[in-house]
Amino acid sequence: MAAFGVPQAKPKYVNNGDSDASPNGTPSQFLLFRGLEPTVTEDLLAKGVAKLYKPSARQSPTPTNPSKKGNAKVFSTTGDSNLGAKEGTLRRVLLIRDRRSNESWRYGFAEFASIDDAQAALTRYNSFDKFTISSKLVTADYVHAGIFVPLFNPAENIERFTFYPLGNTATKLVYWDEEAWASELIISKGPLISDEAGGDGQVRSTADEAAAAAEKEGLVKSGKETDAKAKKRKAEIKDVARQKKTVPAHLQFWSNRHAELHGVKPASIGDESMAQDIPEDTGAPTATKNTSAQSYANLTSKCCYLCSRQFKTEAEVNKHERLSDLHRNNLSNQDLITKAQAKMTKAGVMPRTSFTASDDASSEYRDRARERRQAFGASKKISLPMKKSASKPEADETDDSNGPVPSKGASLLGKMGWSAGEGLGAQGTGMTVPIATDMYAQGVGLGAQGGKIGDAAGEAERNTKGNYSDFLEMTKDKAKERFEKMA
Q: Got the DSSP string for 464-479?
């Protein structure tokens, strides 16, 4: 028992995988398996997950033991034989281990080929009365988005804790907990490729293998009709392979964030073109194309004489000149250019330069202020007071220094038409003397005798300078004031 009054340390948070389960049961390609034995390895986890495959016709269900008593409850460990994922759809398993000791954290993940396969596997899991891996009851759930986060330019000591998404080597993933890592065991990377299927590396299905075996035995005649069907089947397989792969929601989420930060087009993680969208810094200077052309727009009328188009705002006119394909094509038409120049001359519009969409950040500087001055005219010049010249005689400096320096408030009032000696207010009937700033002794109430020290500005100046003569003068004044009160 802890001693009375001694604060107890907070228990350390232990990650057992409960926070990785989907709270609302949203389907995903990954399934989470919790409650594993500490001795379960990646191979044992893969064998246990394989029990969620749909049993084939060759596999007979395990018969029940008739020697059991009639009143004893017998749990099913085989599940419904009509349910389950397709055989071979398990892509890989990920066992969560400690980064320092490499010990298992007793939970892991299984990735299937698609969300439908993961749903079928979880449906078969729910048909079990008891689902065990290495004779230990385990639970299975969907995962939520965010358990595996992308890692860009990882350090050398962290890179060994990362893994690649299937079908994409441009992005590296890492488990969200910095004290653990996902130990990967790849089961299959997709449909098997057979060299016998036409010699061109096409996917050979079970139907193709059966047809080839029948043709070998002479049960099926080979001819043009058979070749045509085989070609059609291969073409269909090609179309299916070209289709976009389904990507887990959490991986697509981080892919979109990466594209947003780096200013590239968002692409699916399964798409091979994603790696091409990410710009690589090779250190070599890139060639920039700076295309400039004469503008045929009238910003006052908000129209383009070259294309004979009217717009609502000036921004739309500039956008039309930079991005419109019609405007870009009309720049190569000499007849339209001649007509546009004539319209500009008639309207009295000065020619200016416009920049097309091929400009980038490294092109020449565009003087937008000069363009605005040409379009709207120069703005009204503001005359500012000139600084005092160093070549003026010293006599002028002495004269200026003798004059009172106006305060900030006086200068603000002077800009609003007030002059020294006049009263405040619209009629000039207000106060003419500024409020006096007096300094009082600390802790003295209002109206107390002897609490007033003097002018606040003078006291501040005296305290700043620290002149002894000022102190003597103030002491004499205080003594004289006390003498007059006594008299």
A: HH--HHHHHHHHHHHH
174 forms beta bridges with 149
- For residues 131 and 140, the answer to whether their CB atoms sit within 8 Å is yes
Torsion-angle region of 426 (φ positive above 0: left; ψ -120 to 50: alpha; else: beta)? alpha
Is the pTM value of this prediction over 0.90? no
What confidence tens digit (pLDDT) does each residue in 316-337 have?
888 888 888 888 888 888 999 8
> 186 phi and psi, to 5 degrees?
-80, 125
Q: Residue 254 and residue 40: Cα distance in Å, rounded?
A: 31
What are the tokens at 270?
A: 């399964």
What is the C-alpha to C-alpha distance for residues 232 and 219, in angstroms, rounded to an integer? 21
Measured from the Cβ of residue 16, the count of other Cβ atoms closer than 10 Å reads: 13
**Strand partners of residue 143:** 21
326 Cβ contact list (under 8 Å, min separation 6) = 307
Q: Give the DSSP letter string of 368-434.
A: HHHHHHHHH-PPPP---PPPPPTTS-HHHHHHHHHSPPP-HHHHHHHHTT--TTPPSSSSS-S--SP
Structure tokens belonging to residue 355: 């920049």
Q: 83 near 123, Cβ under 8 Å?
A: yes
- C-alpha–C-alpha distance, residues 98 and 96, integer Å: 7
DSSP 194: -
pLDDT in tens, 163-213: 888 877 778 889 989 899 999 999 987 654 434 444 444 444 444 555 555
